Amino acid sequence: MQACNSCGKCCIKYSNGDLSASEQDIDMWQLFKPDIAAYVKKGLIWYSPQSGKQLSLCPFLREVKNPQHPNKPFYSCDIYYDRPEDCRFYPVTVKQMINDQCEMLQDGDVDNPHQAQKDLDNLLADSRPSYE
Description:
Elements: H1 9-13, H2 23-32, H3 34-37, E1 40-41, E2 44-45, E3 61-64, E4 74-77, H4 85-89, H5 94-100, H6 113-123
Antiparallel strand pairs: 1-2, 3-4
């Protein structure tokens, strides 16, 4: 298991209505981050403040140049420290990573998913509870 390489697959795959924010996220945004709260509509995220329509991508996802791999997409999150719980907790399971073709997986992780899950939980210990 390797650290996230900011490939953006998860952000792109779970855009277009597949992400949610907790009540705590929304309350915090309303109090301290009105620029983020502007994209919440009836407790759902990423809606255009101008049109009220759901956005197909997170408005805070940015494609940036990666000097080490100039031909490979690289993404950053403008609200990384204030991102929704769904984003903080992703990925939850190795199975989910396999389904999403997550680039954190390395050779051997698929062959030993139990150990890979432990590695994943250790890697993400600062952002979410352990799965097992």
